[in-house]
Design brief:
alpha+beta, single chain, 2 domains, 40% helix, globular, 230 residues, four-stranded antiparallel β-sheet, Immunoglobulin-like, 8 strands, 5 helices
Length: 230
């Protein structure tokens, strides 16, 4: 029987295939959000797996004390506030003492629909926050950051000015509007993608249904072919 991680990997590949076939914005946005969630679940599963492997057995004793390696670890930031103007989406991240960190240790990288923040050497730790699937596109060149007392301000320049964002991300919008399906990935890893497709299929017109049917059949054939190869 395939593990939960293997099933999630298959879900991710299938979501990629369906995304390539999607021509309707609503279908594309829903699948993009689902793809992002699956990737996050895979990452969490792999981290849990690595941690389990790293734990020593009870009958094993280390021969010497080794200093912990913290280079690749960063505390995840999950809370933020936001506001907006005609030109910018403003994301406020509270971090005590961040204004005392060297400028080069506060890094922000922007993409058209995402950004990630990394703060290094703050009270001996690193902090990171990744925001994917922004509700609307932003201008990478026009976006920036400002460091204030205990706060990092992320300024996402709206690609289309004078437009209002009701939410920061597409996923947040779907959650708030109760369009995002609920499922338990521990008991049924494939249920999430299935529910997304069922929701789109049920609400779509004939053209949308034909597109989804075609993409579904092709993805099934591709997966079946891959399962038979050694």
């Amino acid at each position: 029987m395939a593990s939960a991680l293997e099933e999630l990997q298959k879900d991710l590949e299938e979501a990629k295939v369906l995304l390539e076939k999607a021509t309707r914005k609503r279908v594309h946005d829903a699948l993009t959000a689902e793809k992002s969630k699956i990737k996050t679940e895979i990452k969490n599963k792999m981290q849990q797996k690595s941690q389990r492997k790293a734990e020593p057995l009870d009958n094993e004793k280390p021969s010497a004390m080794v200093a912990p390696i913290t280079t690749g670890y960063a505390v995840k930031i999950s809370n933020y506030g936001w506001d907006q103007s005609d030109k910018f989406m403003k994301i406020y991240i509270t971090l005590a003492g961040v204004h005392q960190v060297a400028t080069e240790n506060v890094q922000v990288h922007f993409a058209e629909r995402s950004f990630d923040l990394l703060v290094k050497k703050l009270n001996g730790k690193s902090y990171s926050m990744i925001v994917n699937n922004l509700l609307k596109p932003i201008s990478v060149e026009g976006s920036s950051k400002k460091v204030k007392t205990d706060t990092v301000l992320i300024l996402c320049r709206k690609k289309t000015e004078n437009t209002r964002w009701d939410y920061v991300t597409q996923v947040e919008k779907e959650c708030k509007e109760k369009e995002k399906p609920s499922y338990d990935t521990e008991t049924e890893p494939r249920a999430g993608l299935m529910n997304v497709l069922k929701k789109i299929y049920g609400d779509g017109d004939d053209g949308m249904e034909r597109t989804i049917n075609k993409a579904w059949v092709e993805s099934r054939e591709k997966q079946a072919k891959g399962d038979t190869e050694f």
